[in-house]
UniProtKB/TrEMBL annotation:
It comes from Penicillium angulare. Gene3D superfamilies: 1.50.10.10. Residues 28-38 have a biased composition (Polar residues). GO terms for molecular function: chondroitin hydrolase activity. This is Unsaturated glucuronyl hydrolase.
Amino acid sequence: MAINNTITEDHPSDDSVQVFSDADDSRSPTMTDFSHTSADSDVFKSTQTFKPTESPALRDRLHELYSDNITAKILRTAVTNNGKYECREADFWTCGFFPGSIYAVLERLIKYPKSASIGIDSSIVIQKLRELGKTWSDPIHPMGARTDTHDMSFIIQPSMRPLWELFHDKRALTTIITAAESLYTRYNDKVGAIRSWDQLTQKGVNITSMDQDFLVIIDSMCNLDLLYYAAAHTGRVELFNAATRHAHKLLRTHLRHETGEFSKRKGYNGPLFSTFHVTNFNPMTGKLKEARTGQGYAKDSTWARGQAWGILGYSQTYQWTGDTEFLIAACGLAEYFLLRLELSPSCVERPVTVASDLETQGRTCGRFVPLWDFDAPVDEANPLRDSSAGVIAANGMLVLAQTLISRGEHTQGRRYLDAALLLVEDALEFSLADEKASIVIRGQEVLVKDVRPRATFEAILKNATANHNASDHRRYWDHGLVYGDYYLIEFGNQLLRMGLV
C-alpha cells in the first residue's frame, strides 16, 4: 500500500557552452562562469552580521516538532487510511516517504529518547513502529530494480538508509546499491545527465519519444544523493561521476542567473538563481531543445517546490564533492527563495491569534509559507501555498548551514540556520493541522485518538500543493502532502543530530 502525495555535462571544458536562452524572455539567463569563483570568494563573506536573537530555546519555539501529535499521526496512518490521505498505486514516486516517516520517528525514539513527548514507556511504541515499519518497507525492496523512473532516492532512501544505519540491515544496503545501479542505467553520456521523465503529456504538450527527447527536471538533484551514497559504500566511481556530471549540466540549463529586480538580497554578495522546472535535450547530440514547466505556473516562472529541490540537491551535492560551484549554486538558490518570500504581497500574512496569549498580539504568520509558484497570480483572499516547498527548502538550508560553518564561514552559516528555523517555525504556526492526535496505551496495545473528538486530518501540515499547472490532466492543491510531513520530521531529526535541541 502506498500513500499518495496528496490528501483529498560533464563540467564543460568548452567555454562556448551556452545556458538556455529565449530572446523574447527578459528573464532569460546569461552564462554564469562558476569555475572562476574560488573558495575564498567574497560570495561567502556576508556584509551583514547575524547574531543569535533573544528568543526562547529552540525546543520551546519548535515544540510542535517533537509533540506526540506527530508520532500519533504516523501510527494511525500506518494502521488505517480512514482519514484524509488518499492511496495511490504502490509504485507511485511518493511511495517511499511514508515508510520513511515511520523510521524517522523511530530514530527519534531510539537515538534521542528525551525528544519524545509521548509521556509513556516509549519501548511499547518503538516495538509497534518497528512492526509497522517492516510492513511498509518490505514492498520497497523490489523497487530497487526499477529502471523506469529517476525517483529512486525518493523511493528507496527514506526507509532503507535508516534500516541500514539504525538496525544494520544488510538487505537494506543491498537494496540501496541496487537502486543506484538502476538509476545509473538512465544516464546518457552524450547529454551528461540522467533522464528524469520518459514523457510529458499535458494540454498542448506531447513529449513522448525516447529517441528524440530527453527530459530532465530540477527535482532530479535530490536523487543524486543515492548515487553518491552507493558509490561511497562500493567504490563505484562511475556512480559518483555520473551524479557530478548531472549536477554540472543542470547548473547551465536549469539555473537562471538573475540580473534584474531579484538579483540582490541584503547581506549576500553572490549571484542569485531562479530555476526552470523541466528541460528537454536531444539525446543523440546532447543539445538543449527547450525549457518549460510541468507543475509550475509557466515555463519561465519559478515553481516554489522546484526551487526548494534545487536548494536541497545542490547543498547535498556540495557535501559529497566539495566542488565550490555547487555551493555557490545552493546559496544563490536559497537567497532567491528567501528574497521572494520577503517580497510576497502582504496578503500572505495573517494575525496570530492564540487565546489569552499577550505575546501574540500584533504578530502575524504565513509570510514564510511559500506561494506555490513565485510568479503565479495571487488570489489575495486566499493565496495558494505550498507548505512542502518551505520545509524542503529548510532542510536544504540546514545542510548549507552545517557546510558553511564547517568551512569557518560562521556568519553565513548562521544566516541559513536562522532562515531554516524561521521557515519551519512559520510552517508550524501557519500550516500545522488543528486536528491533532494523541497516543493512548492500553496494556500492550497502542491506540490513537483525536484530541478533539471527530476532528481528524491525517497529515501533519496543511496548505500544500502537489500540482496546480493549468495544463495538467491531474491537479491537486491546498491539501496535505506525505513528503511535506516527511521533510518536517526529518528537519526535527537533523536538529537533534546537530545537538541544537
